[in-house]
Amino acid sequence: MAFTTLPSIRNSISCPTMLVPDMPHNNISLRNKGFIYKGQHGINLRDFTKANVASPSLPVIAPPTPEERKETTADDRHHHVAWTSIPQERWEGELQVQGKIPLWLKGTYLRNGPGMWHIEDYNFRHLFDGYATLVRLGFQNGRLVAGHRQIESEAYRAAKKNKKICYREFSEVPKAANFLAYVGELASLFSGASLTDNANTGVVKLGDGRVVCLTETQKGSIVINPETLETVGKFEYSDSLGGLIHSAHPIVTDNEFLTLLPDLVRAGYLVVRMEPGTNERRVIGRVNCRGGPAPGWVHSFPVTEHYVIVPEMPLRYCAQNLLKAEPTPLYKFEWHPESKAFMHAMCKTSGKIVASVEVPLFVTFHFINAYEEQDEDGRVTAIIADCCEHNSDTTILDRLRLQNLRSFNGEDVLPDARVGRFRIPLDGSPYGTLEAALEPNEHGRGMDMCSINPNYLGKKYRYAYACGAQRPCNFPNTLTKLDFELKKAKNWHEEGAVPSEPFFVARPGATEEDDGVVISIVSEKNGEGFALVLDGSTFEEIARAKFPYGLPYGLHGCWVPKE
Ligand SMILES: CC(=O)/C=C/C=C(C)/C=C/C1=C(C)CCCC1(C)C
Ligand SMILES: CC(/C=C/C=O)=C\C=C\C=O
Ligand SMILES: [Fe+2]
């Protein structure tokens, strides 16, 4: 297995494209190394750390003091904690549990997300720009040890060292010192050298046990240690497929890693597969775009048991926007309704395209699941693919600007979204359909950040978990359990709270689809926060555990079971 260890934090890090003075390392927040912290609930963490944490020598680091929280950045003071930068690099300790965590829940929930949105006095613009913050909830014997840690990407280390952004983030572009530097930067954009490796979107456990944090850039694939949250090194793809970007959400099972590599030169996508224990992606097949001028954004895609579904969304990558120093209204993308929207289905084994249909225009970040629809004789007649669909309106990207997230004044400004259900016929008809899978008012017309029981991946399923809305709001603020059979949703909500993606963990040995728990991390209005465990079936709270400090919002998670 090939990982490259990242150079030590003490090594010199400079911006890739600009000449900058070599400033001393800005070690702002690693405090109290080796200090044994007595938690606010009076638990002696020394005993717990020795007994339960895989790396017994790991120091327990004190949570931020109220003063430190205030000091995050001058601008952050009155923001909801969900949109406030994490004030220190790491923390770990035991949380006091209210309620009962099932004894079968043994393992680690990891959540990744952009948790630091400033460097020095400079505040980032967009939710997706933040440097990656990993959060860990370790469950064992009904107890819960938690922690968070910054991912030591090159982009993060360079920014800290040089006290400015040094790589191209989602919306932020490093400021070129002069014209020559600007020309150099354009050159480095084509080589990928100036693109970020800030792995802030998700985290996956590969079939071979390696845990990898991911984002939209291929170089932003970073191996971490799920116990200590330490950055182990870059995940280097050993093939020669090239390309700079990929889907932020590969489909990962014990047997494979499937992903899409958009081709910005000859508009299309490579569908690739990587075996556990290797770093080599092999091409299954290629889909040529039917619209243009560039491939549609593929933040995620779904699979069925036999097919990989390649969405071709009219929100397309835009080479010109990549070159711009200032963000455009749709960032690195452009909305091309005239280019139409398509769904393609490729056979996982042969790479043959079995369907390529035009569908109504759509906007989605996240596919929920897909499955093959059969007739009475068991013949596959169509593919059903579900996604969190933003009513083919791109406004949601702008709503996720930090200024918008931080300025909620009671106005109901979250654009409507629904569960969009595609039907892709396999009989050669040229059109597919897209309809709401249930009445969107069931979940307050907010819909994103979804999970399912992973045992139902690619199969006919009944339940999904997602964030919905209790209006008025400016961001999804509920957890919702969707029942596609009854076309009903059950919602969890607490006033002013921002819960992150509800993540389903199945009970080992379960036979019912919703037999398990749903984990989320909630950022509260008063600046505090807690880990929440709901029963997957009743969707009632079974446990919560307060963090000693509120956490910023996070995106996607994964489960690392303890054998
Ligand atoms: C956090 C999240 O969901 C999305 C993050 C997206 C990123 C970091 C996108 C980065 C990109 C560039 C820096 C240039 C190339 C295009 C693109 C992949 C959008
Ligand atoms: C948080 C989000 C959308 C919320 C919309 O209501 C999208 C996140 C995308 C990246 O993972
Ligand atoms: Fe995502």
UniProtKB/TrEMBL annotation:
Residues 66-76 have a biased composition (Basic and acidic residues). InterPro entries: Carotenoid_Oase. Binds 1 Fe(2+) ion per subunit. The keyword rRNA-binding does not apply. It comes from Glycine max (Soybean). Keywords: Dioxygenase, Iron, Metal-binding, Oxidoreductase. One of its GO terms (molecular function) is metal ion binding. The lineage of its organism: Eukaryota, Viridiplantae, Streptophyta, Embryophyta, Tracheophyta. Its cofactor is Fe(2+). Transmembrane segments: none annotated. Residues 56-76 are annotated as: Disordered. Fe cation binds at H249, H299, H366, H556. Belongs to the carotenoid oxygenase family. It comes from the Eukaryota. This is Carotenoid cleavage dioxygenase CCD8.
